[in-house]
Prior knowledge:
83% of the residues lie in helices and 0% in strands.
Amino acid sequence: MDGVGPIGQVIRIAVPLSRRASSAAWAVAFVLGLGELPATNVITPPGVETISLLIWSLLHTGVESHLAAVALVTLATIAAAGFVAVGLVRRALARARD
Length: 98
């Protein structure tokens, strides 16, 4: 650390050491936040439709085949992100034990 300034310390030390934990936290937050409809309704700007709002609108318009397809793709995405999050958390915990 001799001769490395504060920005260099962050780039060369802090970021590499916290990369896996930050990735795991991001993945967990993504999985939890993807299906949060009330928060999506509050923060969505006009003209933008998120996947949870699309599912909500399809649920109330009666287009069942489109709703089923969107729901299955969303479920697969959430499941994949959940598996990634679990793997990242396991790696971060294993590295913390060492």
